[in-house]
């Protein structure tokens, strides 16, 4: 029933710099820099606490924010992070 | 929705709204390394032969700098090479306006460029895959 488990690299592998509304993230293992718009930095942050599937992650984010949107939208954001190499599936 | 009267007052439990967005929205942009981006402008970059700080020096066949007038060495180029011309030289052909016998010396000079030397970034960008 549970969807795929998503994993983010540990926070030590990332250097995040807030730029007004955006967040620039340098991913040390790949040497790549990414510009993230909300909610992606927050999702990455929540995933930094440990691997999780989308349901579980939605719960984590819900503890900090009033979340607008459901699992489907969250999975779309996770796919983008996955395509950028910031998140992988376990 | 019936609390319009306290909409201006502080709400101790108010939390930041985080919209996960539409399924099709994109929130991640990856910035390519600077050298990869310069690959697109290779035609416009320049390599002075030799670098301005060595102006006047001749270029030996192995690409090293030698005193002006050295036997067998090539004179400085009157103008910087464009990226495209440098590419031709490195591929073994001779761009227009370059002495064919000196081409090898110029090509070797370019190959010996190192970080910090005039023209190196241009040379490096020639090495990047398009």
Summarize the structure in words:
The complex is a heterodimer of chains A (90) and B (130). With 90 residues, chain A is α+β, with helices and mostly antiparallel strands. Chain A has helices at residues 40-47, 54-64, 71-83; strands spanning 5-8, 14-19, 22-27, 32-36, 52-53, 66-68, 87-89. Chain A contains three helices and seven strands; from the N terminus they run E-E-E-E-H-E-H-E-H-E. In chain A, the strands form two sheets. Chain A has a three-stranded antiparallel sheet. In chain A, strands 2-3-4 form a three-stranded antiparallel sheet, with no helix packed on it. The two termini of chain A are 16 Å apart. Chain B is of the alpha+beta class and 130 residues long. Chain B has one domain (33-127). In chain B, 25% of the residues lie in helices and 12% in strands. Chain B has helices at residues 34-38, 83-90, 100-111, 120-127, and strands spanning 17-19, 28-31, 46-47, 58-59, 65-66, 81-82. Chain B has a two-stranded antiparallel ribbon. A two-stranded antiparallel sheet of chain B has the order 4-5. In chain B, a hairpin with a 5-residue loop joins strand 4 and strand 5 (65-66). The longest helix of chain B is centred in the C-terminal third of the chain and has 12 residues, at 100-111. Classes of the chains: A alpha+beta (90), B alpha+beta (130). Chain A binds chain B through residues 31-40, 42, 61, 64-70, 72-74, 76-77, 80-81, 83-84, 86, and chain B through 15-31, 33.
User: What is the residue-mean pLDDT of chain B, rounded to a whole number?
Assistant: 79
Biggest interface between protein chains, with counts per chain?
A: A-B, 29 and 18 residues
How many independent structural domains of chain A? 1
pLDDT average of chain A, as an integer?
Answer: 90
Structural class of the helix and strand makeup of chain B? alpha+beta
**Number of helical segments with 4 or more residues of chain A:** 3
Order of helices and strands of chain B: EEHEEEEHHH
Tell me the β content of chain B.
Answer: 5-15%
- What is the strand content of chain A? 25-35%
Question: What order do the strands of the largest sheet of chain B run in, or round the barrel if closed?
Answer: 3-6
Distance between the termini of chain B: 57 Å
Number of domains of chain B: 1
| Spatial extent as radius of gyration of chain A | 12 Å
């Amino acid at each position: 029933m549970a969807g795929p488990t998503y994993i983010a690299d540990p926070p030590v592998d990332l250097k995040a710099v807030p730029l007004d509304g955006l967040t620039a993230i340098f991913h040390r293992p790949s040497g790549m820099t990414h510009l993230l718009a909300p909610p992606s930095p927050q999702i990455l942050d929540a995933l930094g606490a440990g691997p999780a599937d989308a349901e579980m992650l939605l719960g984590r984010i819900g503890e900090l924010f009033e979340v607008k949107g459901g699992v489907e939208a969250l999975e779309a954001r996770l796919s983008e992070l996955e395509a950028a190499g910031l998140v992988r599936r376990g | 929705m019936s609390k319009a009267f306290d909409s201006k007052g502080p709400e101790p439990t108010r939390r930041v709204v985080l919209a996960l967005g539409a399924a099709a929205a994109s929130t991640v942009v990856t910035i390519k390394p600077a050298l990869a981006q310069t690959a697109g402008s290779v035609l416009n970059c320049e390599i002075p032969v030799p670098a301005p700080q060595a102006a006047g020096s001749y270029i030996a066949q192995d690409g090293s700098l030698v005193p002006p007038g050295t036997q067998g060495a090539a004179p400085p180029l009157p103008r910087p090479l464009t990226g495209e011309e440098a590419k031709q030289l490195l591929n073994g052909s001779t761009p227009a306006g370059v002495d064919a016998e000196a081409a090898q010396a110029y090509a070797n000079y370019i190959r010996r460029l190192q970080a910090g030397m005039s023209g190196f970034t241009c040379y490096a960008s020639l090495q990047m895959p398009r």
